């Protein structure tokens, strides 16, 4: 096998079992069998080498042989705070945010947001982030958090050093993205955009307005562009 396949597990020990979705994927799709080597991720940023020891009816047993040194996590913490989008657009944003290195994605509903969230959708988003993390070889999947109101979502961004709010109706010059330092929280609205009141609230909480140029970008484009630019200025790209 070229590159060992990657699996998330709850806990690492000498013997580990893959169950449920990870088990079915390993057995039915990848057709792994005893003796095959895989990489296990425990979500804390560590990666381990393991060998399949036995395939049972509903689980696959693995023997962990050692810890790997992998350096695919970004140095700077980036948190994307984004309005809930229609259809599968939020999934797209979560996937791209994972690839670009976000440590957390906060999704919120707001005044002009017309999509709705439920438990299944949130679970699905968590799976999307795990799949994206495996594919891009991160050792950690970003935490996915849902907040029913913008205020709660903005509070999630308070611990970050640079707090930037992409505002489509910004009147004065925005904060330059090139001055971004340390950790950052980046806010992008849903398809409906933001209200003046929402922007004032964010400013009172310490967020600075940012312009993403003369054109109005779709929310998913704005989120990916903003994260990419932040990652660039934080030295994470290239
Ligand atoms: N419905 C709104 C546009 C919303 S765009 C309107 O017609 O005006 C969705 C989100 O993307 C916005 O809330 C903002 O966070 C971001 N965005 C899009 N274009 C932007 C720009 N030129 N500058 C800053 N933010 C932008």
Mean pLDDT: 93
What is the N-to-C succession of helices and strands? Answer: EEHEEEEHEHEHEEHEH
Helix content bin: 25-40%
Count of spatially separate domains: 2
> Architecture of the largest domain, CATH level 2?
3-Layer(aba) Sandwich
Structural class comes to alpha/beta
The percent range for strand residues is 25-35%
Low-pLDDT windows of residues: none
CATH class of the largest domain: Alpha Beta
Determine the number of helices (DSSP H or I, runs of at least 4 residues): 6
The whole-angstrom Rg is 20 Å
Count of beta strands: 11
Present as ligands are: S-adenosyl-L-homocysteine
Regarding quaternary structure, what we see is: single chain
**What is the fold-level CATH name, i.e. the topology of the largest domain?**
Alpha/beta knot
Q: What profile does the largest beta sheet have?
A: 6 strands, parallel
Q: Please tell me what the overall shape is.
A: elongated
